Amino acid sequence: MDIQLKRGLLDVCVLAAIKDSDSYGYKIIKDMKPYIALSESTLYTILKRLELAQMLTVRTAEHGGRLRKYYRITDRGLQRIADFQNEWNEMLSIYRFVTKEDAGNE
Amino acid sequence: MNKNDFLRQLENDLCGLPREDIQERINFYSEMIDDYIEEGLSEEAAVQRIGDVKEIAAQILADTPISAPDTPRKKRSTGQIVLIILGSPIWLSLAIAALAVVFSLYVSAWAVIVSLWSVFVSLISCGFAGLLYGIGLAVSGFAIPGIAMVGAALVCGGLSVFTFYGCKAVTKGAAMLTKKTALAIANRLKKKEEVRNA
Q: HSE on the CB side for B110, CA within 13 Å?
């Protein structure tokens, strides 16, 4: 898949993983696993990028005697998901056009 | 490999990056490994799940751009300026000496590489020249010396293949080392600048 496209998609996936409730690194990977595989290093880069873009906030909390970072989505993050859904509708109609063209050539 | 080995190796491989960046990475991977263990994986298996530490570190370094410090300098007081000017015969010469040492190390490292490559070039040119000369000799009646010459040329050619791969590896290693050193120096400067501005 085109690397820029995949990057954007993964950003939205991670935002979706924290949309309903705060989450942490391991849980994000686990929740995404049935849909898309993500390495820990990739997740780190994405979380960092989303934090810089102010699409999520980070807080550290204690868990079982150690520290864990929790990520919470911001309004800007929610907006990104909404934008993605709109873009996707556009993409779908392009897809339909492209595949129709293919069928016509056969 | 256990968790501590993994984290220590990562810290080691990332040296040159800013201290706080390294710490953040270490905390992230440490949390991940602990969460895997909490889910029932053994420590070894959890570390294995994260992946090869060398590859991870290499990827992180590759993704890190070398950034030069660009923060504006703080104004110095008159007293400081006077001191700097009065002290210039000492610190200026020391600074020049230090720069010269660094520069000479750099130049000598690359000089070794250049000389290795010239060994390669001379071997391969010996190979070609010897081959032509040997054939010439053999054709013009000196069969034995001609064949010996061709043999020697082929040996040169063979050696040149070996030296080519050797030179390539050394050059690559030196380039990596140069990038790492540049990163370390850039970050050191950046940190100093931050301290000064704090």
A: 8
